[in-house]
């Protein structure tokens, strides 16, 4: 079986103190999974990956010399931005598309996907954050980048971008303020989703250890081509650089999640 890496690490400069994440960067599947029984067109949709995010994160990473971790498998296989006990970890139906390769699924195959894809990705995230913390001599600032559809169930989404968060707002207010400052875009605050999701990437790697963070969502139609990616990289890079220069965002400070108190399971590495 050909080796398949479930993640890519852009090494860059760990002393930068900034780590970028792209959970849903790619729409790939290992050859043995075929297309999970789906038509090829399904892998061009948001159900398979976050359109535009891979190119955007690569560009911002290069502009800021900041390390990044990219997920290299489609969320249709298993979703890295879900906790291991989340019922939506492996979707049977996504936005109306039935996924034959995921239903039925055996317990053995469920565990196989955790071991081959989900867990290695999260180890890479943890190790990258750890290297940054050691090199920078303080907690890094972690920014996760996603994208969302321009409309949902026929209803247009007015936000050009949004910031999702749980209860640690240290990076959130300055980020929203800077995004809104030019006055040319509408910025959502926990729109179109709520950022408090137990067990997701931000919960696991930032909320539990007390690391400043934010999840940025960009509307997919705005970063669907090279021109849009370049424009948004030029918009985001100086904003993230200014946040990264704030000493208060490089302190460990744990906030209680809106999803409830932490338990022993949350403390796992």
UniProtKB/TrEMBL annotation:
A Pfam family cross-referenced in the UniProt record is FGase
Q: Which SUPFAM superfamilies match?
A: Zn-dependent exopeptidases (SSF53187)
Q: Which InterPro entries match?
A: N-FG_amidohydro, UCP029730
Source species, domain of life: Bacteria
Listed name of the protein: N-formylglutamate amidohydrolase
Native species? Ensifer adhaerens
